[in-house]
Amino acid sequence: MFQMDEKRTTLSFYKYHSISDSHRFRDDLYQLLSPMQVYGRIYVANEGINAQISVPTSKMGKLRIALEHYPFLKNLRFNVAIEDDGKSFYVLKIKVRDKIVADGIGEALDVSKGGKHIDASTYNDMVLKSDTIVVDMRNHYESEVGHFTDAICPDVDTFRDSLPVVEKILEKNKKKHVIMYCTGGIRCEKATAYFRNRGYDNLYQLDGGIIEYSRQVKNQKLENHFVGKNFVFDERLGERISYDVIAKCHQCGAPCDKHVNCANEACHLLFIQCQECRNTFQGCCSEKCKNFLELPAADQLIRRKTMTFNGSKFGKGRYKAHNNDDSLDLS
Q1: For 267-288, how does the pLDDT look when each residue is reduced to its tens digit (9 = 90+)?
Q2: In the CATH scheme, what architecture does the domain 111-228 have?
Q3: Is 188 an annotated catalytic residue?
Q4: CA spacing 20 to 30 A to 136: which of 1, 204, 210, 254?
Q5: Which candidate in 153, 182, 188, 267 is catalytic?
């Protein structure tokens, strides 16, 4: 384990590229990165690589050289975290998957034929025009805490779910310019290629996603059109882009945009909880989970085999006032 006072950098990268033997590539990559104390979560598939990692800052240069051992990983853009306490990952996991982003797409796609990449300045110019719409390609729990002003945010749980929903949006806006965005760009590469393959034109993708947009806005002193936090898939669960708090605590409705997992491991629901409710419910999503945690460990082990919790049913929480779903008991 690394020393807690060691400065680390959290970053992500991806690359669509044909990998003939993904299992061997996985094993070789682990042997390459592990000695450098790289931690994180990397998905490898025949279609490419998708990585979210933490690396000792002093070894950033060494990391890039190591990755360039593979020709297709040369000149990678590292999406470096905006807010980073160095505590995003603690172990290195490299998993072989069918795809680097689960999409449910059966047809063959050439992701190089996706939407036109645009930078932050171009985005800011385009969104001022009436013939432009912006579509968030992320999930509901991501856009709930932060999104671009006036963006269409589909109420979906997964990227796979978003595709048919977004297609209905495109059908109604065939003559408009459509900008898609996500966290770092990987979902938009696939989505714009998918919709181009289905005959839709005038598609654009925000190059580097929210992370690169925020960096360009800061460095170039541009107007920031993103409000709230950018949800991230590591221990931090979010990094602040603007000071706006646009979400609500799922239990009391107070302004809050802090995601947590229910302290009851048998539930583990991802939801938004303010500090007051965290104290009241001892980090749990409901009285049911709070009471369950107060049971002796032996009783918990027996009861969890038959009990159903919020996380068993939903996985990701929603604020009830947004969808009037009383079945999601976060009281």
Answers
A1: 999 999 999 999 999 999 999 9
A2: 3-Layer(aba) Sandwich (3.40)
A3: no
A4: 254
A5: 182
